[in-house]
Design brief:
mainly beta
């Protein structure tokens, strides 16, 4: 399914929660967005890692 770039660009965005370096080069890093808690009863959070 093709999606127009304008539709993607219109999606909400929030900055990463953490920036984690894995080497000495400034471009060697991973961004971490922590998942929001689903409910007050659930106290677990899962991480999503994108490289």
């Amino acid at each position: 399914m093709d999606v127009a770039f304008s539709k993607i660009a219109a999606l909400p965005f929030r900055p990463a929660d953490n920036k984690i370096a894995y080497g000495e080069d400034p471009l060697q890093f991973a961004l971490l967005w922590r998942a929001k808690k689903v409910s007050k009863l659930e106290n677990k959070q899962q991480n999503l890692w994108l490289f």
